[in-house]
Amino acid sequence: MSQIESSVLPQRPSAVILGAQWGDEGKGKIVDVLSEKFDIVARYAGGHNAGHTVIIDGQKFVLQLIPCGVLRPGCTGVIGNGVVLDPMAFLSEVQKLRAAGVRVDGNLFISNRAQVILPYHRMIELAAETAPGRQTIGTTRRGIGPAYEDKIHRNGLRVVDLLNPSLLRTHIHNACHEKNTIAHALFGTEPLDPKQMYEEYARAAEQIAPFVTDTAYLLNHALTVGQNIMFEGAQGALLDIDHGTYPFVTSSSSTAGGAVTGTGVGPRHAGTVIGVTKAYVTRVGEGPFPTEIEGETADLLRARGMEYGAVTGRPRRCGWLDIPLLRYSNMINSTQWLVVTKMDVLDECDEIPVCTAYEIDGKMTSIIPADIRGFKSIRPVYTRLKGWSCSTEGITEYDQLPKPAQQYLEFLERESGAKIGIVSTGPDRGQTITMPEFEDLFARKG
Ligand code: GDP
Ligand code: IMO
Ligand code: MG
């Protein structure tokens, strides 16, 4: 493949789709809805900590590492260099998709520069999360953080090296020695066996090899021949390692910038930025959540929204929409369009509070604090909007929404500063309202 001319501009718009808050906004559903208009869907960050649910005519898929685009015939899936890949998790997902009749061979590619998660990453994370006196983050315990630590520390294993048996053997031998020693000294953990690990991962590498390529060349070449790319975010902006509610974040760049560093496509070609937000907010794991609610209403949202983690099954914390946080998310991502999911979950609420400002130490502000102490002093200021007390489930036309639901969306659009392109009224692919202006943005594939 020849060197890509950096001056060549894509002929059809690409787009970054990301979560506007703490993950589980419904990205999977929306990527699936939009994938018919994209040639390639590329994951750029995270690993199998993600759980992206897609429901097509009642058939449910939960994708963790593999981009949701593979569910659309004719759409290529790419796992970018910004992802941390657990080979066993990848192979098990591939197997499930094959069993469901989804084509993955020949249209799913893994970056040779992606980092590999190995069993000692999980071992260290589990020990650290449960060690007395350590700050619990409430991670998914998939080894994500320790794998990114090794990447930044420059002693990680990349997919290209996983495929090189002698390098793999040496890497596992040395890393196991080091990690076993540290984990035993710090947490009293039993050591892992490097020989067995090598044998298992060398076998997995053989199965993974056909999927591996230089995806930066693949993606840039696709752009030069007029194809477009959807960059599928995982997690959410407030879980971003730099911009999120640190230290209660994940270990990758889940914001729009991650689409660039996590794939090798330059910022000029990344395209429109689309933020996905629920009509309310949820969070799994520890960390600040200014508009969190408890009690009957939280239970109602959790039950109607089936707010249990797609990966860990943990109940999700629930709360009201937080405009200062959404505006912050829109700012750091330069979000142009919003997708509002789960409108139907609010159907039974008589009144819907929306946080429009914070009171911190007696002063009104909409600036997001950088530290946890700042978050703890937030008192959310609410505007109470009228509920609609009727079903919006499955509505596909904006005009069919009850007036108060339209007013809720208009308020959200005005306050957040980004235009609403899609409203989701149920988990299924078809339960979707697309605004005409947004529909015209992405021409259908020819
Ligand atoms: P993701 O991680 O952002 O892809 O989101 P998850 O799949 O983890 O969680 C979103 C959940 O909400 C899934 O169970 C979806 O099937 C479901 N969902 C998505 N959109 C809607 C919607 O508009 N209404 C309802 N009721 N459920 C939805
Ligand atoms: P999707 O893509 C919601 C959360 C974990 C924990 C923190 C760190 O489905 O939206 P990690 O295992 O990444 O080190 O955990 O981040 N978290 C998510 N929460 N959705 C996700 O992904 C998440 N991925 C990680 O619960 O609080
Ligand atoms: Mg999820």
Low-confidence stretches: none
How many separate helices?
A: 14
Mean pLDDT: 95
Mind telling me the CATH class of the largest domain? Answer: Alpha Beta
Return the CATH topology of the largest domain: Adenylosuccinate Synthetase, Chain A, domain 1
Which structural class do you get from the secondary structure elements? alpha/beta
C-alpha geometry: globular
Helix percent reads 25-40%
Oligomer: single chain
Bound molecules: guanosine-5'-diphosphate, 6-O-phosphoryl inosine monophosphate, magnesium ion
CATH superfamily of the largest domain: Adenylosuccinate Synthetase, subunit A, domain 1
Number of strands: 20
**Gyration radius from CA atoms, angstroms:** 22 Å
Could you say what the CATH architecture of the largest domain is? 3-Layer(aba) Sandwich
Indicate how many domains the architecture comprises.
2
For the sheet with most strands, the description reads: 10 strands, mixed
Strand content: 15-25%
Give a description of the structure.
This protein is an alpha/beta fold. It folds into two domains: 15-112 and 214-439, Adenylosuccinate Synthetase, Chain A, domain 1; 115-210, Adenylosuccinate Synthetase, subunit A, domain 2 (Orthogonal Bundle), CATH 1.10.300.10. The protein is 32% helix and 20% strand. The chain has helices spanning 27-34, 87-99, 119-130, 144-153, 159-162, 165-187, 194-208, 215-224, 257-261, 296-305, 323-333, 372-376, 403-416, 436-439; strands spanning 15-19, 40-43, 52-56, 59-63, 76-79, 84-85, 108-111, 115-116, 212-213, 229-232, 272-278, 281-283, 292-293, 317-319, 337-341, 351-360, 363-365, 378-386, 419-424, 432-434. The protein has a ten-stranded mixed beta sheet, sandwiched between helices. It is globular and about 65 Å long. The protein starts with 14 loop residues before the first strand and ends in a 7-residue tail after the last helix. The model has no long low-confidence stretch (mean pLDDT 95). The chain binds guanosine-5'-diphosphate, 6-O-phosphoryl inosine monophosphate and magnesium ion.
